[in-house]
Task: inverse folding
């Protein structure tokens, strides 16, 4: 599937969220008598992170290659006229930066990590 496809980006966003939550609930699932659920969460989280970060790697490489291939930074620096390809590359790069939901994944990672940390401290030291 095309990396810039809106539905694929949406899918990868939710895969990242699911992976993050799966990793964070392992601490709670380990308290259950059946550890199979912690194992399931670990596999879901690991596979999800592999998929999510592979996607992010491809996106970052595509952006960097695009900028380098058309020498966009130098053209902008020298205020040269941009070609149609240059404009399309700049439009893609700027729009993908503006529509990226990566920051939301980072927020979820931060919040769920903090909640997991507090839950572990409560479980270990208070309960």
Result:
């Amino acid at each position: 599937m095309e990396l810039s496809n809106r539905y694929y980006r949406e899918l990868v966003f939710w895969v990242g969220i699911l992976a993050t939550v799966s990793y964070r609930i392992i601490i709670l699932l380990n308290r259950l008598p059946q550890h199979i659920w912690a194992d399931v969460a670990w596999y879901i989280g690991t596979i999800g992170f592999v998929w999510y970060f592979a996607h992010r790697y491809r996106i970052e490489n595509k952006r960097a290659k695009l900028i380098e291939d058309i020498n966009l930074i130098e053209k902008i620096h020298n205020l040269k006229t941009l070609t149609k390809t240059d404009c399309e590359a700049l439009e893609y790069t700027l729009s993908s930066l503006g529509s990226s939901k990566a920051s939301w994944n980072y927020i979820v990672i931060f919040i769920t990590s903090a909640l997991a940390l507090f839950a572990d401290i409560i479980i270990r030291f208070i309960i």
User: Anything to note?
Assistant: The chain has one domain: 6-126. Residues 24 and 115 are 8 Å apart (CA to CA). Residues 36-69 form the longest helix (34 residues).
